[in-house]
Design brief:
Layout (H helix, E strand, L loop, with lengths): L22 H22 L9 H26 L3 H30 L10 H12 L12 H35 L17
Helix pairs in contact: 1-3, 2-3, 2-5, 3-4, 3-5
């Protein structure tokens, strides 16, 4: 008579309730396709040559899209069958949107006034610069020189700090609400990464 292995207990980062096969794979694919779509959009979106107030206008429009997208993602998380997976997917979408909003704004500003930064920015340079500002790494190889560019960098730092703290909290809170809605309260044995001592 063959011996069967004992049933595996869920690990600390796994939801207590079963996840259908392929759900994690679908989440990863959705994130990959979303980021790929954003990259394609960013690479083909025309850049205005003269952008007096264009950079600020693009930034405001992009931030409005970011806020609307985040609000929509929160609603989807609350209604999802697997809220935590949906929260990861949402973070994989709204995070890059914020990055590309600022990258496109820097690209627009640099195209209209090459003296705004220490060097003219290409599309890749703009993403690189936005990423270094967002991560607060700031290597110093590219820096804002003009007042409008410095103002945009300051805005990105403030938005980035608020997003880093607020976005994760918002999405995890929505996932917890979604778990409670479906009768799977996080307090009822569903270990949460933030509850686990390192």
């Amino acid at each position: 008579m063959p011996m069967s292995a004992p049933p595996r207990e869920p690990g600390p980062f796994r939801e207590t309730f079963p996840t259908p096969p392929g759900a994690l794979r679908r989440t990863v694919l959705h994130v990959v396709f979303s980021v790929t779509g954003l990259l394609v959009l960013y690479s083909v979106l025309p850049v205005p040559r003269r952008a007096d107030w264009g950079a600020v206008l693009w930034l405001l429009l992009g931030l409005a899209v970011f806020v609307a997208l985040t609000a929509g993602q929160v609603r989807m998380i609350v209604k999802a069958d697997h809220p935590r997976l949906r929260a990861v997917e949402a973070l994989g979408l709204v995070g890059p949107v914020l990055l590309f909003v600022f990258a496109y704004t820097y690209l627009t500003l640099s195209t209209s006034d090459a003296a705004s930064f220490t060097e003219p920015l290409s599309r890749i340079d703009a993403v690189y610069f936005a990423m270094t500002v967002l991560s607060t790494t700031g290597f110093g190889d590219i820096a804002a020189k003009s007042e409008p560019a410095r103002l945009l960098v300051t805005i990105q730092i403030l938005v980035g700090l608020l997003a880093a703290v607020g976005l994760a909290r918002l999405l995890l809170g929505a996932a917890d609400i979604g778990l409670r809605r479906s009768g799977r309260s996080p307090a009822a044995g569903d270990a949460h990464p933030r509850d686990i001592d390192a």
